[in-house]
Write a structure and sequence with these properties.
By secondary structure, this protein is of the alpha+beta class. It is built from 18 helices and 31 strands. Bound molecules: dioxothiomolybdenum(VI) ion.
């Protein structure tokens, strides 16, 4: 039996950074953690979606007779009989008017916008019977010519409507200094980079159970990254008071961004539950995960970059075109890092979108920046070879101590420390300036590195604290945990703030009825919710102090800052009059204390630029005859402020590197454009790294606090774990082979 590792706080004074085991680890490995699809509700029935087989056009006819007669079938739903979601706008085309379009309106009309779009739904008394009947629905279509081929249509790319509408949007064109000044540089490079569509593919399939508790009360057990964003969305869609919608997402089995948006299957389940007056469970198939819940969009980029002979950047021009759907505009910050990463006096960025007859993409693992970093950090490497300068040194030459985009100081930036510690750990001195210099038999050996960055975001959040008579503390927040170990980190932050041992603290999350929290996304949870944990624990101390000052003689006239909270006790600073918190409540004559506190970022965000940084180093071995690539060693270094838990944070870094290996070498959603349909729709065809593909990953943290971001000194970690990994590997492959591959993934055919 593992117990939560106990640290004697009287000795260390701090749990921050300690590698505590996950507080929910045992529930997960023993199967006691309940995920969305695992709830059993009385009278629950099962829904299965039927997807369109064309990419664009109209449904001409639907024959549901055989499906309706099949055993166990309760209802067959199509656009002809669907209950309309009252919040759907009734526009003829979904992009007009609201700028930026809108999510797909399932079963709204007879139009087809993408292949695999839900066109019918079977509700039956079992999943198997619903699945069987789904195969009996017969549809005929009036096809229109579809456009799904990115390269054939790239000329149609446009400035996003969101940018046109809002001139201040960072999606607009950006120029610092002289546009295209790189062309005047002594040494320059122009290159194009291509990133294919990639699918999130978390282990847990997207699933929802919709339960109308009464005519106007809806409960959802839903695999999402935000309970309250989902609550708000469906309250709007079904025109319900927000408090009448409840969303439960206690456990989420990975999400990587596809739970940051609500999708047609969720609406379909809500609709079905209303139509049959029973709770309805709808779980997607793995194949449906490729078309119904977003993906990293196919992206083309062009970089022009130039430097003087001594390695000082003159300018960077970076263009990007990403795909989106015809009905909804999805944008991401592909070009952001190019504006702020290096001390280039002249920088231009151009972001465009290409609407295609495909489903809407969504943020995925280091969204935007991970794609952008492949182009920027590959181009930096290419230019370093042209300059005959070590690529690490080239980056140090162009290091900037001030944000050149906003002309503001950084809150903190320990990027140079990352460069140094990573170079040391990988053995960068072994790397040769010219490619193909290191060999081991038939294997060519190469080293590469790349930088990553992501905004150190923080949002407002609230946390509730209940201190009970036995001295135990329960904290609550609506935030979800998609795997990083949120509850564990929050318990550590609380333990440090109020001096209660972690075994006596419980952190409840994943319920929209808990206090305010946004999505778990954009590497913002610890900074946002952790700050509220600190605030509520401090408020608790103030309350205890004022109660004792009033009710207990020795504490008369004391203020909270002269009290000491440690090891579940409160005392005067010199340790006198020590009381357990349980006795303190008794002395104060209260049963328990229950407080909600809020924490919001302040004006320091206008005075400083806040970013996390990572540097990834890779050693690859490439077989000279077969082109097989083995990632032999990875060192990944992060400047993410204070590290709350070295184990869970280290796990995230390893996860990011694993995703980066997939991005570099394997992941590729291939579409057959004759049908506008993906041909890679399972793990046999769509490859993700397995254990054999991932070497030992050494994780290093600078671990220096940034107290401008939040009181714990943390900066976001999740995204920088992957941003820069793919170019580090691509750069190492060039160092090994002399072959520059600018289109991911780097499969062996591209190396022969
Ligand atoms: Mo992440 S792409 O913010 O889940």
């Amino acid at each position: 039996m593992t117990k939560i590792k106990t640290v004697d706080m009287a000795i260390t004074g701090r749990l921050m950074g300690e590698p505590l085991n996950r507080v929910d680890g045992r529930l997960k490995v023993t199967g006691k953690a309940t995920y969305s699809a695992e709830y059993k509700l009385p009278g629950m029935v099962y829904a299965v979606l039927v997807g369109s087989t064309i990419a664009k056009g109209r449904i001409k006819s639907i024959d549901t007779r055989a499906a309706s007669r099949a055993a166990g079938v309760i209802k067959v739903v199509t656009h002809e009989n669907a209950l309309k979601a009252p919040g759907y706008a009734d526009n003829e085309h979904p992009t007009e008017p609201p700028t930026g379009g809108q999510p797909h309106r399932v079963f709204h009309d007879n139009k087809v916008y993408f292949n695999g779009q839900p066109v019918a739904m079977i509700v039956a008394d079992s999943f198997e019977r619903a699945s069987y009947a789904a195969g009996l629905v017969k549809l005929s279509y009036e096809k229109e010519t579809h456009a799904t081929d990115f390269n054939a249509n790239i000329e149609k790319a446009v400035l996003p409507a969101q940018a046109k509408k809002n001139k201040k949007s960072p999606l607009n064109d950006y120029d610092r200094g002289t546009p295209d000044a790189y062309k005047t540089a002594e040494v320059k490079l122009e290159a194009e980079y291509v990133h294919p569509s990639e699918m999130h593919n978390p282990m847990e399939l997207q699933a929802v159970i919709a339960h109308w508790e009464s005519a106007d009360r809806l409960t959802l057990y839903d695999k999402v990254q935000g309970t309250q964003p989902t609550q708000n969305n469906f309250a709007r869609e079904w025109k319900l008071p927000v408090e009448n919608v409840k969303v439960i997402a206690t456990f989420v089995g990975g999400a990587f961004g596809n739970g940051l948006h609500n999708w047609p299957h969720e609406t379909a389940a809500i609709m079905a539950a209303k139509m049959v007056s029973r709770p309805v469970k709808l779980m997607l198939t793995r194949e449906q995960m490729f078309t119904m819940v977003g993906y990293r969009p196919y992206t083309w980029q062009r970089i022009g970059i130039g430097a003087s002979r001594d390695g000082k950047l003159v300018g960077i021009s970076h263009e990007s075109v990403g795909q989106t759907s015809s009905y909804e505009e999805f944008t991401e910050s592909t070009l952001q890092q190019t504006r702020m990463m290096y001390a280039a006096p002249n920088v231009s960025t151009r972001y465009r979108l290409l609407p295609l007859d495909v489903s809407t993409p969504i943020w995925m693992r280091g969204p935007g920046e991970a794609t952008g970093a492949f182009a920027l950090e590959s181009a930096m490497d290419e230019l370093a070879y042209q300059l005959n300068i070590d690529p690490l040194k080239f980056r140090v030459i162009n290091h900037t101590d001030r944000d050149p985009e906003r002309d503001l100081p950084w809150s903190t930036k320990y990027l140079k420390e990352c460069y140094e510690m990573g170079a040391e750990a990988i053995g960068w001195h072994k790397r040769q300036l010219q490619p193909r210099m290191l060999k081991d038999g038939d294997w060519l050996i190469g080293y590469g590195m790349a930088t990553g960055t992501f905004g150190a975001h923080r949002r407002g959040a609230k946390v509730r604290a209940k201190l009970f008579a036995d001295g135990s503390l329960v904290l609550q927040s609506a935030v979800t945990d998609i795997g990083p170990g949120t509850a564990t980190a929050m318990v550590q932050i609380a333990a440090d703030t109020i001096g209660i041992s972690p075994e006596k603290i419980t952190f409840n999350l994943g319920n929209s009825e808990f206090p305010e929290a946004g999505n778990q996304g954009g590497s913002s949870t610890v900074a946002s919710v952790g700050s509220a944990v600190v605030a509520v624990c401090n408020a608790l101390k103030v309350r205890i102090a004022s109660l004792l000052a009033e009710k207990k003689a020795e504490y008369k006239g004391t203020s909270p800052d002269v009290l000491l909270f440690s090891n579940g006790t409160v005392s005067l600073k010199d340790g006198a009059s020590r009381l357990s918190l349980s006795d303190a409540l008794k002395a104060a004559q209260v049963q328990d204390i229950d407080i909600i506190e809020e924490a919001r970022p302040g004006e320091e965000r206008q005075k400083y630029s806040m970013y996390s940084y990572s540097v990834h180093f890779a050693e690859v071995h490439v077989h000279a005859i077969t082109g097989q690539v083995r990632v032999a060693n990875v060192v990944t270094c992060a400047d993410a402020g204070t590290i709350v838990n070295k184990k869970t944070a280290g796990n995230q870094m390893i996860g990011g590197v694993t995703g980066g290996i997939g991005m570099a070498l394997q992941e590729d959603a291939v579409m057959d454009h004759r049908f506008g349909r993906y041909v890679t729709k399972d793990f046999a065809e769509y490859h993700v790294p397995v254990h054999a593909d991932v070497p030992h990953v050494k994780v290093l943290f600078v671990n220096k606090p940034d107290t401008l971001v939040d009181p714990m000194g943390t900066k976001g970690l999740g995204e920088i774990a992957i941003i820069g990994v793919a170019p580090a590997i691509a750069n190492a492959i060039f160092n090994a082979t002399g072959k520059r591959v600018r289109e991911l993934p780097i499969t062996l055919d591209k190396l022969l």
